[in-house]
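Objective 1.3, modelling of assemblies. Example input:
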Amino acid sequence: MTTTPLAVEATGLVKTFGQNRAVDGVDLRVEAGTVYGVLGPNGAGKTTTISMLATLLKADAGEARIFGHDVRREPQEVRRLIGVTGQYASVDETLSATENLVVFSRLLGLSRAESKRKSAELLERFGLTEAAKRPLKNFSGGMRRRLDLAASLIAQPPLIFLDEPTTGLDPRTRAQMWDTIRELVTTGSTVLLTTQYLDEADQLADRIAVIDHGRVVAEGTGDELKASIGTASLQLRLADALRLDAARTIVRQTLGVDAVASPEGSRLTAPMAEPDRVTDLLVSFRDAGISLAEMSVQKPTLDEVFLTITGKPTTDAADEDAQRELEGSIA
Amino acid sequence: MTTLTPQAPTTPRITPRPGVGGTGIGATIRQSFTMAYRGLIKVRRTPEQLFDVTLMPIVFTVMFTYIFGGAISGNVASYLPIIIPGILVQTNITSSIVTGVQLREDMDKGVFDRFKSLPIARIAPLAGALLADTVRYAIATTITFITGFAMGLRPEGGFGAVVLAGLLVIVVAWAISWIFAYFGVVARTASSVSGISNLVLFPLTFLSNAFVPADTLPDWLRWFSEVNPISHLITAVRELVNHGAVGGDLVFSLVGAAVVVAVFAPLTVRAYMRKA
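Predicted structure (tokens):
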């Protein structure tokens, strides 16, 4: 497939907690120098997967190598190659920002003077210099995440794991975090990040693995994934709910797809692969005398990616088609 | 589904930059001291955690001396040489429980995930926490002796013997804290750690010669009190403080401490790594 060195190479990773197969045979290949997104809802097994790759958890089955080093047999080598930023800021609450970074630097073998210099440099880079001496209790969520990320960069590891780096952040802080992550890549690091937001994976990641119930259900570039479910969906609300069947027929004729009727009966949702053809649809509606109360275009959400890819809970023919299409597009 | 074609591991191995982390003896000691430094910053930021080693020794010493003094030794002054070593050992060992409790609380926080992901010796976060807590024992020891002096204790062993006795108690408390560190690592919650630990320690400290001479006890209890390692430690402290004497009890205490560390340090590290 490629000759680029692989930063992460995992095959068949399994982790079971009691009855729950949290990770159920995950395969991942991350090329060095890229950003790889692992996309999935809460409880899909993202954090567990990262924990196994970062030597925090032992896999029940399967293998994983980080830059060619086996995580089970050479955990210390692996730890020297990675930086881990957890889902919840993994820094010390009672310590100040500087103290946190100095402690981590000293642990990594930097001298006292080097630790101080490195900490100051990182605080400067992450815009935390002013807050350096304050205890972390007074830090905002965004500041905490930035400090967390700074702590992961002390040893300049070639691979950085970011577990949901922006969950719970406000939009502005989120955008700042995105810029920071993009910057990381320009310095040559490989980033493996998990996220619940399609948007975020799309913005940052070169390739995305969609994970659900501990399995990779789709893998590809952001464009491939989105193409597989239609770039957006068209939402129509009819003035007269009785004309719903007629409207569905027209959608099938003009767009060539099956529209899904909402439970309350007056709303239709149809995948919109080619926006141009919506004009034809509207003209057909007018000709048929069907009037619309509302029309909107909705971008694909993670929910829809999921519904489409996993085919659950609505196992429509359209969904299965989309899944075949997706598999075809990335095979 | 899978789009991955199995491929031989031809990936060029990237070797880490030299000098990052390490697990040699020198590195392990340095990392442990760094972790202890972290522990001390935490103590400085949350001084209320020191209640058990500052106020408790004062309250216990004053309370027990006046309650039991007259009954056991006829008067307070002649009870002090008996009770002060008892309180000293009891306070120190009780406060070593806190080590386990705090370790559990600490491990529940995200920062321990980071420690686990660092290329450092696995024992360093544990050893550092235990090392930092010797400061707590030193505070408890100093305060107990000062309270004793204020109440009229005049150790015949002299100042040097008192310092030596203090060091002995601190070393043994540090050794015993490995037991509670083990509980801390294997337990699920911090409150269960303190529950189990108190259950073990309460009888051990009270069924000893800490407060009353063992010969006043019924036979079966005297037997227990005499084999109780805590009694040996208390006797060692009494001999040092009151007579400046070094005896078999001191050797027994140090050997016992060494055995506890030899057993529980590896157990604790193993349990910590399994949880990792």
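Chain B touches chain A at residues 1-7, 9, 11-17, 19-23, 27, 30-31, 34-35, 37-38, 41-42, 45-46, 109-120, 124, 276 (CB under 8 Å).
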